[in-house]
Amino acid sequence: MKEFKLAVIGGDGIGPDVVAEGLKILDAIAKKYEVSFVKSNYNLGAGHWNRTGEALSDATLAEIAKSDAILLGAVGDPTVPNGVLERGLLLKLRFAFDQYVNLRPAKLMDGVKSPLNTQEPIDFVVIREGTEGPYVGSGGFLAQGTPREIAIEENINSRFGVERVTRYAFERALKRDKKKVTMVHKNNVQPYAGTLWTNIFNEIASEYPSITAEYLHADAAAMFMVTNPERFDVVVTDNLFGDLLTDIAAAICGGIGLASSGNINPEKKYPSMFEPVHGSAPDIAGKGIADPTATIMSVALMLDHLGLHAAASDVEAAVARDLSSRGDKKRSTVEIGDALLAQL
Ligand code: IPM
Ligand code: MN
């Protein structure tokens, strides 16, 4: 029997609840497809930080590195200073495991209401660069605490990094119907990073004559995502623009409770990590009302990444059937998980 090692990080707030439902679906799928997932639970997040003062030790990181994939719920809690868990846990994992493709599908499913009144189907995927850009944490303060305080935040982009994520986007577009890649940046105001991205985009586009290549400024892309989402197929962009655009993408497809994501190391040199786009939602934590669908769709992305394509389609189809008959029913986290299990 094929065996996969899975690191499970429920994390904070609603994280553990939605992950529990994701695992329920995963167990059923494993049985059906005769594969096995050997799970290791990592009790990381606010509780661990409050107890130990450490977000993620190098020893634990080395442990997790041995897994085939990571399923993560959410991190962030009011008891921890802003940014500590984001940088010390979430970004540490994304960076250490070279998860340079942050894959975020945006598909408006049947039965789901979009806040837009568009009749056109919405079906695109954002490939957000995951290891560079303004996220690297390079910078510093000068004269901090004085009236002349200076903050420097560096936006780091390498040819190596931009090339590989751009190529991934074009390869992805080859497998889709619209065959279009939109690169998003602000090359009119970021002449260094913007020029690097634009040059590389044009170079790679010329290798893919069957793909329509278009460039959009980030502000225009944000607007078109709301006015003409049907124009997008594959969007490739830097880490920060991608962060902003994927919240819009989630919102127009029915909200963050449905939005899945994969932090992928395509070469499989390191484990890839799958997580819902939403956060820990401390305001509804413990109430059992968080929608686990985003996590379950992230499980589907994980199955696909692990080569279990039929299993992935199976989970997606179960979610699609549930969404199409969902209506305005209010259901608990566990009830939605059970309903999806019944759809499998
Ligand atoms: C996301 C989140 C994270 C990000 C935060 C929690 C660090 O917003 O996954 O989109 O900015 O990448
Ligand atoms: Mn975000």
TrEMBL record:
One example GO MF annotation: magnesium ion binding
Cofactor: Mg(2+); Mn(2+)
Assigned keywords, A-Z: Manganese, Metal-binding, NAD, Oxidoreductase
KW Cell wall biogenesis/degradation (keyword) present: no
Cross-referenced InterPro entries: ICDH/IPMDH (IPR050501), IsoCit/isopropylmalate_DH_CS (IPR019818), IsoPropMal-DH-like_dom (IPR024084)
Domain Isopropylmalate dehydrogenase-like intervals: 5-340
NCBIfam families in the cross-refs: PRK03437.1
UniProt protein name: Unannotated protein
